[in-house]
Amino acid sequence: MNTEEYISSGILELYVYGVLSDAENKEITDYLRQYPEIRTEVEEIEKALIDLSGAIAPENPEHLLQSIKEKLSKRTDVMPLSKKRTHWFVYAGWAASVLLLIGLFFLFDKNRALKETLDDVRNRNIQLEIQITEARNNAEKTQKLLDVLRNRNILKVPLQGQQAAPDAYAAVYWDKEKNITYIDAKGLPAPPEGMVYQIWSLKMQPLTPTSIGLLDAYDTDENKIFKLENTNVSEGFGITLEPEGGSKTPTLERLYTLGVVQS
Fold this sequence. Notes:
This protein is of the alpha+beta class. The chain folds into two domains: about 5-110, no CATH class; about 155-260, Immunoglobulin-like (Sandwich), CATH 2.60.40. It is built from six helices and eight strands, in the order ααααααββββββββ. It has helices at about 5-10, 10-15, 20-35, 35-55, 60-70, 85-150; strands spanning about 155-160, 170-175, 180-185, 195-205, 210-215, 225-230, 235-245, 255-260. It has an eight-stranded antiparallel β-sheet, with no helix packed on it. The protein is rod-shaped, with a radius of gyration of 41 Å. It starts with a helix and ends with a strand. Residues about 75-85 have low confidence and may be disordered.
């Protein structure tokens, strides 16, 4: 027999696809034993199908398309057999190949849509976990602040609004033992761009201000409570509005709040 014409007829593809009758399958099985080139061709077709099935959900769909095109184009330059039955095999082989192509891309589109859906769900879960973590951290931080502020050993110093901001107010919670001062700045207006609130520890006689820190995270801190170290023997506290970076001495024209420690 002419094995090249038999191979180019397309019947081997139908054999591999499993759409032939039992008699036709037996005939090809006999040929596989007799003709090594036919057996090699069937092995190549099977390998191509395995490779394509492994690429149903590929990261590179262009590679899948190119692989299918290369497999289908291997016989475009071979003249079909003149027999009517052989013509039918050629057309059927190409039709089966086209159907395989359509099926593979249908599965690929479904898998790609599923992957996108899973990615969306995964991203939403990540965002939800971040929000839960932030809420938990905020709750723990709030509870710690409440425990501090309710401590009977903490000295509270109310700070009243001054001429620069009569409606402003704040409070200082001073832990003398740990040399820590908590500033409740919720009653201060948002500082203008390029400006920052600066906290001063005051000694009254003579008046001696000492900076204990800046509220440079005012815009990002939700509860507006700030923890500052204070090793001074404070007799009062004041808050001024200063340029970014703070000042060596307070700008009295921008004194927003002031309070004296009650003995």
